[in-house]
């Protein structure tokens, strides 16, 4: 003798199967993010210069070597790369498509060439990963830099950059408990002035401060920085999705 399932039970089972088949949308799905790990080894001439902005007669160094840790002796370029690789993995797990300006210690691109790469990539935004250095070894903390309007006339790009910077800084400070150096609006960075998409530069801390240098070069602290960046981008993207 065959037994039929009650109609409501059959409906419930069918609904469960349909839900299981549905793809769960990740929070950063559809977003393409460029990660620019600052500096890197190069064969280019150290005195090479390029315009600070399109059409400008002001010339700036095309390549900079960055700072290094007073305690660890690790170069800024290596630290930037380590954090950028972790950030790539974390953002990918949230559904984002990632463009890496460099994934090795070597990078032969000038500041303008880096920017032109992300401009032509179809990326939605760029995060530049750096660490700070100063003659005063007592100074510490996280600094966010965003572009100003001296050369950039795209108000939407500037507003989005400011918003991304705000949320990332909040996230990094929340997870690291580091001192805040605030947000600096800069018209002096070539990698800002040539950008056609929203862009921010995170100074993760001061490698010239012995204690912060040691912290910056630990897995646990790098993971906190990454968590803060990801949280900030998620918050930014959620806000964009409501508009």
From TrEMBL:
GO terms for biological process: peptidoglycan catabolic process. Keywords: Hydrolase. It comes from the Bacteria. GO terms for cellular component: outer membrane-bounded periplasmic space. CDD domains: MurNAc-LAA (cd02696). It holds the Pfam family Amidase_3. GO terms for molecular function: N-acetylmuramoyl-L-alanine amidase activity. This is N-acetylmuramoyl-L-alanine amidase. It comes from Ruminiclostridium herbifermentans.
């Amino acid at each position: 003798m065959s037994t039929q399932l009650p109609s409501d039970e059959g409906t419930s089972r069918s609904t469960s199967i349909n839900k299981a088949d549905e793809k769960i949308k990740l929070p950063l799905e559809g977003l393409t993010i460029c990660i620019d790990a600052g500096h890197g080894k190069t064969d280019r001439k150290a005195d090479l210069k390029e315009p600070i902005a399109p059409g400008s007669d002001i010339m700036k160094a095309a390549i900079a070597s960055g700072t290094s840790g007073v305690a660890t002796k690790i170069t800024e370029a290596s630290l930037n790369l380590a954090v950028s690789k972790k950030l790539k993995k974390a953002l990918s797990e949230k559904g984002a498509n990632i463009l890496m300006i460099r994934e090795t210690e070597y990078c032969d691109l000038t500041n303008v060439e880096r920017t032109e790469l992300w401009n032509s990539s179809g990326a939605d935004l760029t995060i530049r990963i750096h660490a700070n250095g100063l003659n005063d070894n007592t100074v510490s903390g996280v600094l966010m830099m965003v572009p100003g309007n001296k050369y950039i006339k795209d108000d939407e790009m500037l507003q989005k950059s400011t918003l991304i910077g705000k949320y990332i800084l909040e996230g990094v400070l929340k997870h690291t408990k580091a001192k805040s150096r605030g947000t600096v609006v800069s018209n002096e960075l070539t990698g800002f002035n040539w950008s056609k998409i929203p862009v921010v530069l995170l100074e993760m801390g001061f490698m010239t401060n012995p204690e912060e240098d040691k912290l910056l070069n630990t897995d646990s602290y790098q993971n906190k920085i990454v968590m803060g960046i990801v949280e900030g981008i998620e918050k930014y993207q959620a806000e964009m999705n409501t508009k």
